[in-house]
Amino acid sequence: MDALNRECSGGVDLYFDNVGGRTLEAAIQNMISYGRIVLCGMISQYNARRPPRAPANLMLAVVKRLRMQGFIVHDHMDLRPQFNAEMSTWISQKLITWQETIVEGVEEAPAAFIRLFTGEKTGKMLVRITS
After folding, report:
1. Where is 2: in which H helix or E strand?
2. CB distance 108 to 114 below 8 Å
3. CA 102, CA 88: separation in Å to the nearest integer?
4. What is d(CA 78, CA 56) in angstroms, rounded to the nearest whole number?
5. In 18-29, which positions are buried (b, 16+ CB within 10 angstroms) versus exposed (e)?
6. How many other C-beta atoms are found inside a 10 Å radius of the C-beta of residue 85?
7. Which pLDDT tens digits describe the chain residue by residue (131 residues)?
8. Residue 1, pLDDT score
């Protein structure tokens, strides 16, 4: 939460969440009034052994008058052709970049899968199959 305070000293007006848990709490803490939170996933809770607690600071959503809305990509499939065209252009112009974690060999696939849920990766997790 301290890092977010430093990096976003003016507050956060829009947050796209696919982690949940403490990451969502940090975002809520740093939201400006009338800020918006897009909820797309909660990977920190996918393998929870017991029901996770709600963000401890959820009352701030009321105080700050935040708007929180779930987002599922299937709701917007009509925009896919436009997305593909625009994203292809942005990637070719290097306006969009990403990070990947690549492990070598199919024998590493089970460990790579587990790392998806432990956070021991950066960006997309890929398994390179070599012949």
Report:
1. helix 2-7
2. no
3. 23
4. 37
5. ebbbebbbbbbb
6. 10
7. 677 778 888 999 999 999 898 899 999 999 999 999 999 988 888 878 888 888 999 999 999 999 999 999 999 999 999 999 999 999 999 999 999 999 999 999 999 999 988 878 888 899 999 87
8. 66
* DSSP summary character for residue 32: E
64, with CB counted inside 10 A (0-12, 13-18, 19+), is middle
Query: Which domains are present in the chain?
Result: 2-89 (3.40.50.720), 98-131 (no CATH)
Q: How many CB atoms lie within 10 A of CB 30?
A: 19
Residue with tokens 């990637």: 91
Other Cβ atoms less than 10 A from the Cβ of 116: the count is 15
> Rounded to the nearest 5°, which phi and psi values hold at 109?
-60, -45
Phi and psi torsions of 116, nearest 5°: -60, -35
